[in-house]
Write a structure and sequence with these properties.
This protein is α/β, with parallel strands linked by helices. The longest helix is centred in the N-terminal third of the chain and has 20 residues. It folds into two domains: about 375 residues, 3-Layer(aba) Sandwich (Peroxisomal Thiolase, Chain A, domain 1), CATH 3.40.47.10; about 35 residues, no CATH class. The protein contains 13 helices and 15 strands. Helices cover about 35% and strands about 20% of the residues. Strands 1, 2, 5, 6, 7, 8, 9, 10, 11, 14 and 15 form an eleven-stranded mixed sheet that branches. The chain has a two-stranded antiparallel sheet with strand order 3-4. Pathway: Lipid metabolism; fatty acid biosynthesis. GO terms for molecular function: 3-oxoacyl-[acyl-carrier-protein] synthase activity. It holds the Pfam family Ketoacyl-synt_C. This is Beta-ketoacyl synthase.
């Protein structure tokens, strides 16, 4: 079997996967729910929502850490997905032997911790007293739990990854970027394997307020499972969610040498920045178009070889116009015959984790021969002519997938995956 690609680089295999979303913990529970069109979006019970415009979310409420703040939950989500992925890969649980790339939200002190610091100050909250309280809190481990890099440090210690763990945040493209970094490290010959994780447990009240101020969230609270409706004409914004996806990436040569099962092959990665606006996409879609084309070129494939597209599909008006523009520009009329679905209709938008979760689902699509649906597709948008696999999953022999991640701030990353190395 050939173990290098069209540019002579090592082919990169996926030998382990793990996932956690509001649909459940692990690949089996998630896949069963996803392919049956089940929604994990529900009313928020973690904190009061009386004065919030959006009162629903795809939160992960079944982990013990779900009420301990975004850093603790993000760590727990990443840890759970990584455990599943490393176990499937058949690697030692504490001696991974390759680098870690973690996509995580820009974690900060939440209001509970900020108020605790204020309460701990001895002189009414003046700045000197607050500094003293912060120093005392540091001794007690507060900042170890809330610093941006501490999650990766803890994961690196547990799984025995090598080198300095990398924590990255490229908004909604973060999970895909982590996979890209791992793939490129293997291609450069820097390592035989890498652990790529996307995790996000930051669905806080503050996050809901911030996204509401951007008019990005849906306010259709009455029937939560119906609120996320990608590509529908009446789509009204995304649903904030939590989750994690993890992939063990390995050179195909290394995977074959140790007899590992090859789940899929990473064929191409493409990225392109959009400098138009902090949250809006460039109206002509040129950065997204360039990212799709870059992924195909990196894979050495043409548009006719893509058999399914896992859409970014956030359920916002502007994003889906831009995604359709990019796909119709790159694929032309052929885009009408390629299945394009969005699992965000069922799990919501998991932000930093989305690209990694969707990579796992893309690989399961190829392996299981089932395309997950876009649920809640009841009012087609005549301006978006796509086969969105409406409402019900579809059996299909899928050998190649394009997975799109288009993030706030103009960070666009696209991945091309194949069922086999061929």
């Amino acid at each position: 079997m050939k173990t290098t690609d069209h540019l002579g680089r090592p082919l990169v295999a996926v030998t382990g996967m793990g996932v956690v979303t509001s649909l459940g913990r692990g690949k089996m529970d998630n896949w069963a729910a996803l392919t049956s069109g089940k929604s994990g979006i529900h009313e928020i019970t973690r904190f009061p929502t009386d004065h919030l415009a959006t009162r629903i979310s795809g939160m992960v409420d079944f982990l013990p850490e779900s009420t301990l703040g975004p850093s603790r939950l993000t760590h727990a989500l990443a840890d759970s997905a990584a455990e599943e992925a490393v176990a499937q890969a058949g690697l030692p649980a504490d001696d991974f032997g390759g680098p870690l790339f973690l996509a995580a939200p820009p974690v900060e002190l939440d209001w509970k911790h900020r108020l605790d610091l204020y309460a701990g100050s001895k002189r009414g909250g003046d700045w000197r007293s607050l500094i003293e309280a912060a120093r005392e809190a540091r001794k007690n481990g507060l900042f170890d739990e809330t610093q941006f890099s501490s999650i990766a440090d803890q994961l690196a210690d547990k799984f025995g990854t090598s080198g300095l763990p990398v924590t990255l945040s490229t908004a909604c493209a973060s999970g895909a970027t982590a996979i890209q970094l791992g793939t490129e490290a293997i291609r450069r010959g820097e390592c035989d394997r890498a652990l790529a994780i996307g995790a996000d447990g930051s669905a806080t009240a503050e996050a809901l307020i911030r996204f509401s101020l951007l008019s990005a969230l849906t306010t259709q609270n009455d029937v939560p499972e119906k609120a996320s409706k990608p590509f529908s004409k009446d789509r009204s914004g995304f649903v904030l969610a939590e989750g994690s996806g993890a992939l063990v990436l390995e050179s195909l040569e290394s995977a074959l040498a140790r007899g590992a099962e090859v789940l899929a092959v990473m064929r191409g990665c493409g990225e392109k920045a959009d400098d138009f606006h902090r949250t809006r996409s460039k109206p002509d879609g040129s950065p997204a178009i360039a990212a799709v084309r870059a992924a195909l070129a990196d894979a050495g494939m043409d548009t006719g070889e893509i058999e399914y597209i896992n859409a970014h599909g956030t359920s916002t008006q502007e994003n889906e116009k831009m995604e359709y523009l990019s796909l119709s520009t790159v694929f032309g009329e052929d885009i009408k015959s390629i299945p394009v679905s969005s699992n965000k209709s069922m799990i919501g938008h998991t932000l930093s984790a989305a690209g990694a979760i969707e990579a796992v689902f893309s690989i399961l699509t190829m392996r299981e021969g089932i395309i997950p649906p876009t649920i809640n597709y009841e009012t087609p948008d005549p301006a978006i002519e796509l086969d969105v696999v409406p409402n019900e999953s579809r059996k299909a022999d899928v050998a190649t997938v394009l997975s799109n991640s288009f993030g706030f701030g103009g960070q666009n990353t696209c991945l091309v995956m194949a069922r086999e190395a061929g």
